[in-house]
Amino acid sequence: MDDQQWIHRIALSMLKGIGPVNARNLVAYCSGVDPIFSDKKLKNTLEKVPGIGPKLIASITDKKVLPAAEKELAYVRKNKLRMLFYLDDDFPRRLKQAEDAPVLLFTKGNMDPDTTHMVSIVGTRSPTEAGKRLCVELVEGLKEVNATIVSGLAYGIDIVAHRHALKNELPTIGCVAHGLDRLYPGDHAATAKEMLKSGGVVSELPSGAPFAPGNFPARNRIIAGLSDCTIVVESGPKGGSLITADIANSYDREVFAFPADPPIRRAKAATGSSNRTGPRSSPARKMSSPSWTGYRRRRKHPCKWRSSVN
In what order do the strands lie in the sheet with 229-233? Predict the structure, then answer.
């Protein structure tokens, strides 16, 4: 594929106000990505595309978009990043099942997003010692199925999961809510660097993308979408990990919760899943079962937050 095609793909992902759902509608209507930016006749008929109005047409025809995409491609080439586009065969197959999945992902490292077992582990940023121990035991237990551990590189349970995946020689992928030109929090830079050897870091955002509150729940859908199941280890009733669990449940993926201390335990019910870890139902045991299919067709009902990514 030549650079001009990649520039158009990057530009598609950068269009302001046009989320992945509308971006897919555009591509379908225009019979490809390139005509969106190169066919002047099509621009006069874009109002016919579902979800596209005058304001969004102005975003598509903005003359600043293609130069910005060209600059981003130069950054990708210089820093040896990998791009995964939703129409390509190498786009993560589990994530492809989600209708609101990003149209483009930027990745860094040596990651395989399509290993046999993909498990996301999320939880509070202020775990108890008991919660940390449970997370460690969970990761150690998942070694028997050689699972890839997916999380958000945040403080708390996320970083515990990543570090103990590395300790147990398991691949681990960090999904971040910013471009790959930086790392937040900076305290985890050394861990992220080590993850690049067998795993990596992934984002849907280009370099230089500003921090925004909406980036984090949007990032959470990537964590959920990449994985066969999501496991919550301690979360308050309004914790971001419950957004991930809710999204995973809407994707019809398995959701588990580890027992927590009494003040946090009530949050387990908010995951909306009947599947819980316990003596007879651990994630590792369930995934090693021949009858376990991992992921299933996405449910039709969306999560409440998803209006922001349409």
Answer: 82-85, 104-109, 199-203, 172-175, 148-151, 118-123, 229-233, 254-258
CA atoms lying within 13 Å on the CB side of residue 104: 25
What is the Cα–Cα distance from 108 to 174, expressed in whole angstroms?
Answer: 10
Spatial contact of 106 and 203, defined as CB atoms under 8 Å apart: yes
**Has residue 73 been placed in a domain?**
yes
Work out the pLDDT band at 309, boundaries 50, 70, 90.
Answer: low
Q: Does residue 40 or residue 247 have the better pLDDT?
A: 247
* Residue 200 sits in the same domain as residue 248: yes
Q: What is the predicted pLDDT for the residue at 45?
A: 83
Residue bearing tokens 């981003």: 72
pLDDT tens, 117-150? Answer: 999 999 999 999 999 999 999 999 999 999 999 9
What are the backbone angles phi and psi of residue 32, rounded to the nearest 5°? 140, 170
Residue where a domain terminates, one of 19, 52, 78? 78
Question: Do 122 and 264 sit in the same domain of this protein?
Answer: yes
Cα(4)–Cα(67) distance, rounded to whole angstroms? 11
Q: What is the pLDDT of residue 194?
A: 98
Beta strands in the chain (DSSP E): 82-85, 104-109, 118-123, 148-151, 172-175, 199-203, 229-233, 254-258
